[in-house]
Amino acid sequence: MKVSEPINVISWLEKQINYTMQEIESDRDDDSLLSILDKYISMKKKYEGSIDHLHETIRVMQDFATFIQEQHPEKNSIVKEMVHKFLHSK
């Protein structure tokens, strides 16, 4: 039994996106292609977000830092130190 190579999901999705875009360019009257393209793009974003383990952590840190800068600017140096420690611990 021959073992097949694992599929690189991101590459496959990019190929599907490119193929669908070519189809849209060649057949402008098929509105369903836009829906298909949107689904492939959404799948790619979700997949990339799921393999980026720091994605949510970084978003929360950005929101927190923005809140501190706007609401408590005198604490900026503390936030800067916290972020610096986090970045150097990874």
Compile the SSE list and pairings.
Elements: H1 9-26, H2 32-51, H3 55-71, H4 76-89
Helix pairs in contact: 1-2, 3-4
Describe the structure.
This protein is an all-alpha fold and 90 residues long. Helix content is 77%, strand content 0%. α1 runs antiparallel to α2 and α3 (55-71) packs antiparallel against α4 (76-89). The longest helix has 20 residues, at 32-51. It is elongated. The two termini are 42 Å apart.
Notable features of this structure?
90 residues, mainly alpha, elongated
Query: Low-confidence parts lasting 5 or more residues at pLDDT below 50?
Result: none
Q: How confident overall, as mean pLDDT?
A: 79
Helix content: over 70%
Find the structural class using helix and strand composition: mainly alpha
Strand count = 0
| Biggest sheet record | none
Run of helices and strands? HHHH
Strand-residue fraction? under 5%
Number of continuous helical runs: 4
Distance between the termini: 42 Å
- What is the C-alpha radius of gyration, as a whole number of Å? 21 Å
Which term fits the overall shape?
elongated
What's this, in brief?
With 90 residues, the chain is mainly alpha-helical.
